[in-house]
Each structure stands twice: as structure tokens, then as C-alpha cells.
Specification:
- InterPro entries: Ig-like_dom, Ig-like_dom_sf, Ig-like_fold, Ig_sub, Ig_sub2, IgSF_CEA-related.
- Keywords: Disulfide bond, Glycoprotein, Immunoglobulin domain, Signal.
- This is Ig-like domain-containing protein.
- Pfam families: Ig_2, Ig_3.
- The chain has 220 residues and is mainly β.
- It folds into 3 domains: 36 residues, no CATH class; 77 residues, Immunoglobulin-like (Sandwich), CATH 2.60.40.10; 82 residues, Sandwich (Immunoglobulin-like).
- The protein is 2% helix and 44% strand.
- The strands form 7 sheets. Strands 9, 10, 13, 14 and 15 form a 5-stranded antiparallel β-sheet that branches. Strands 16-22-21-18-19 form a 5-stranded mixed β-sheet, with no helix packed on it.
- The termini are far apart.
Amino acid sequence: YSHRDIDPGLDLSPGNRTLTLEVVTRDDSGLYQCGARNPAVASISAPVTLKAIPVIIINSNNSYLVKFTCNPNEADVNIQWFLNNAELPLSPQLSLSSDNKILTFHNVTRGDSGYYQCKVWNSVGFQESDGINLIVFCELEINSSLTLKCQAESNPAPDYTWYLNENSLGILESQYSISMASRNHDGNYKCTVDNRLAGKSASASVTVKVAGESWRDRLA
């Protein structure tokens, strides 16, 4: 071969002894061999297999039956799912397809919220997908009531603080109640728990979505 005979993404050294792939893509996968000859004899090397590191895309749908699909670009790969950067613990409401590509939530709940990724590897390398953030809302009918509870075991008793969309609600108790829900109650509620003596704190959050029409909406 000469430099003119090969793809622009490949480069041959003077004398054609070294073949360099500048940027390896999936299209470069395959068997590579080199041949040499002189007026007396010709020979060809044993083949070398080049496999590209897999690339993954996660797709999802939007319903109470939620499916995430991990789509590697290679067939012979291992797939594993992670939640919040830890190995995904399976539960009765979760299932995996036989090839681990499809993760199914059969009845999604708020407890399934989190950051999901699939990780794929083969004999050549390892790759992880971009993450997908699953947020499950707590849906509340307009004019209905709701009580959010925040529980923590601490000695001495901890201090509680409630926030709505990062703004303090001025509630310093372990629970927060909504007596008549309106659109003003939409948002992310967070409870923080502090043990000042031990210097430790923790927090938990839930997103509330108020659905339906109020009497003001109907009169408008």
C-alpha cells in the first residue's frame, strides 16, 4: 500500500512497517494483517482483531411502567446497571432482560428516584453511559391534604428544618402538613436534620405536584 491507498484516518510510516489509527471508531473494527514480499518469496502475518470500546445510549419512556434501555454498539459485551453510582439492588418491582439491556420498573414509586447508568465492558475496554435522572413526583389533588414526615434517630434529639424549593418554610418540627393544597404547594420539599452536638446532619427530599382545578380556576 501507499499513503494514497488508505483511509484518511489511517497513517503508514515510511516503508509501510507501522500502521497508525489516529482516532479509532466503530468502523475501524475488524481483522488486520500485513503482507511482505520480495522477488523470491511472499508472506502474510497472522490476523490481529481490533474491537472498539462499546458506546451506550440509554432510552426511557414515561409511564408507571418505566423501561430504560442500554444500547451498546457491540454484541458481545457485559452490561451492569448502577443507581447513584452504586450497583443497582434488584427488587420484586424491578426486572432485567436476559441480556441485561432492558431495565423495567413494573410500578414506579418515589423510592425509585435517582441517577441511573449502565456500564458496559468487553475484552478491549470499559465504557459507561451518560446518566439519566429519574424523578418520581408525589401527585396531590388540589384542595386535598398531605402530611410529610421526617424521622431520624439521634441523641440528643435533632433539629428539623423544612424547605420548599430551597427556601425555608420556618417549620422546625419533624413533620409538615398541607391542609388544602393549591398550585402554590408545587415544588421540591426538603427536610434537614441536624445533631449540633455530634456535628452531623442529613436530608431527604420529595417533589410534590398538585393536579386538578381549584374553585378559583373554574371561576376564571
